[in-house]
UniProtKB/TrEMBL annotation:
Domain of life: Eukaryota
Name of the protein this chain belongs to: arylamine N-acetyltransferase
Similarity-based family: Belongs to the arylamine N-acetyltransferase family.
Sorted UniProt keywords: Acyltransferase, Transferase
Enzyme Commission numbers on file: 2.3.1.5
Pfam families assigned to the protein according to its UniProt record, in alphabetical order: Acetyltransf_2
MF annotations from Gene Ontology: arylamine N-acetyltransferase activity
Gene3D superfamilies: 3.30.2140.20
Amino acid sequence: MDVQKYLNRIGSTVPAEPDLDALRSVHTLHLLSVPFEDLTVHSGGRVELDLPLIYDKIVTRHRGGFCYENNGLFSWLLCSLGFQVTMLSAQVKGLISGYYGPPFDHLVLMVTLQGRRWLCDVGFGGAGFSVPISLETSGPQAEGHRVYRIRKQGDMHFLEWQGEENRGADGDWKEVYKFTLDPQAPGGLHGHVPVPPELPLLHLLLQIPLHHFETRWTAHMHGPQAHLHHFPY
């Protein structure tokens, strides 16, 4: 796997040092370049979590991926650039059911910089954030047309957001997912890939979860072949 080719894939250069500006930059560029998609499952393919295979899919073949693929490969990139990365298990709250999924329903990353912790997620197919979220505060963190916060309850952390229309209304925070800071080993995640066809994940073909960026993707299926097209609003 080649770091420079990965950076070329997302339109980035090698950062001078692994600092917060560099983390914010590669996080945003990754989201703008690599979509959330699960076309492999829809086309009858097999989901593989071996990093070289994910690298080939995303970097070489210019595909997207779901959370385990996007965040798993992004973790490898960050470590290669000198960042301290911890994988975390998250549970997504269902938009319709209102219930949380099981542990390992979603994979997120925690990056520690100079003793401060940051939540990173380039693999969420919903109300995602564009730059890392600080885990050191429970206060609101504005990003474009949305505001995010991390609410703590015991050992559990909840990612929540508000839209522009209800900003400042304390009772209108929407829960996205919850997670603990317990480290997860990459090898231990392989048995938790959500692939049953009844899972809501599989009904979302492709999405760039950046509602305040002027970018859009569409996917076309021709048999087993997936064709991705990018165009501005």
